[in-house]
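Example record for the data management plan.
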Amino acid sequence: MLVSRTVAHALLLSFLSTPLALAGCDSARGAPKKSDHTPPAKTRGATADQTATQQAPGTTAPDPTPPVRGGRPATFADVVKKTRPAVINIYTRTQVRTNRYFVLPNRRMIPEKRLSESLGSGFIIDQAGHVLTNFHVVKGATDIEVRLFDERRFKADVVGTDPQSDVALLKLADANDLPHLAFADSDHLRVGDWVVAIGNPLGLTSTVTAGIVSATGRKSLALGGMRYQDFIQTDASINPGNSGGPLLDLDGRVEGINTAINPKGQGIGFAIPINMIAEILPRLKAGGQVQRSWLGIYVDPIPKPLRAELGLPDKGGALVKKIVPGGPAEDANLARGDLIWKIDGHDVEGADQLAWMAGNIGVGKTVALDVQRGDKHLDLSIKLGAQPN
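Corresponding structural encoding:
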């Protein structure tokens, strides 16, 4: 159905009266690049059913416990033996303010502080001793110590952090030739695949649990400060202290970082996909807090009724809900109600993916936008600014 430019733009604006769903242009990730850690793809999950056969006289008996029987793993022992040495316990100490105050002779009052200790998990990603964990595990820590499965202990320093995706990179002091884990390609993870979680729940060292992938692409969880969410949901048991530990496939490769649980339910845990982390890993290694670029807009998914009314594709694109005054988008003449179909030559799969891509392109870089305004297509250039903290 053909719609006039004026009518089309009016229809776009009519869909902008709902409450703001995203904070700025920062809500989730798109399709991250593959990590250098990613090995060639292997077949994961169950193998075909195996039928028992009679043993011929004088021959060797077949393995009575094949790795997978009838689609269900007979044991996780091999993957645990292979990976547990690279999973670490993290002990942190933090100075915490209390509600009590000291009164100095000059009547000045200063808050009393106490030492708070906490436990978490992490895993080694290279022989040099770089460790991935959650940002909330080490946030504000004044002292970090880790313990390996073989009981060795190391001091650790924070190299880089990204609070918006809840990821931190540590470096173990005076460490080398350490066991470490390889990355999987988490974009290939399927609902129903078997996964294994290893960590330090409730101080119980090197606890192993297993389950399946219950869902992928979970977003909008009430986790303060995490703007970028694209969680793997699993029923592998995750408890306090598991945060920062790996979620592994049956080849022992990291599919994600165990991060959160739903305390109102059972068997509802969430992990950050490793591809999401691999994309920002070079910036974490560069040190400091990851600085993100932004377009200076609020975006929403394109509503289905609007797609039907304007004859738009069923998927893709993002709707500009608001322009931030004085931001990059305003300077580039983007307008409320515009539809963005491409950024920097890449198709926009949705509002969440646009937010992730815009945040990772880089501050100060100029990108091309393919924009639809009513029934008119525009090619705009925009210089990305620094995302406000």
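Summary line stored alongside the record: The chain has three domains: 5-26+292-386, 83-172, 186-281.
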